[in-house]
């Protein structure tokens, strides 16, 4: 009875790591809430230059001699991103026309990604190369694992774990890409005289809060993968 109960507790029923997964999910929510609250705080602080996010992006591209990247306005809040295939920086409602230190920091961050692309930053190349596989991993990994469990087919479970690991790899590679983009952004903002010293410190707080969302997401993905690997090992035992 003791062996059967233990197998149920750790193989199919109660799983101690499940609590860790829940904790990581909560941390992701906290990180997301923090970046929103920090942004709201610093979007009320107008930069001394008075430049908008779009103007800052244009200036940074000009300073780096990058002429083939467009700047577009996209709807939404904090939906800013750089599309390397289309060579377009898309700035959200909260960034495009705003002269705040928060908006300027975000716009410069996206320009940091452009510079990574333009100068051949290796981690960005790796992330771009694994995007198709990561998309498959995020969509098909978990379903494959559950299907394998449902039909009691261990090879299918193992395949699902490997497929899901591609999505986790993408999360991990994203970390140096995002941190480097923020570093480039802050250096350029100060070097080009777009923000003063204290304003750069404020922008750093916004970008640091945003970076923590990537850290939390990556940590949660790693924990989830580890949990799946351990569960699969217990099933085999």
Automatic annotation (TrEMBL):
Keyword annotations: Membrane, Transmembrane, Transmembrane helix
Q: Does the keyword Transmembrane helix apply?
A: yes
Write out the transmembrane intervals.
17-36, 144-170, 206-230
User: What is the top-level taxon of the source organism?
Assistant: Bacteria
Q: Which InterPro entries match?
A: Zn_peptidase_2
Q: In the UniProt record, does the keyword RNA-binding occur?
A: no
Which protein, by its recorded name, is this?
Peptidase
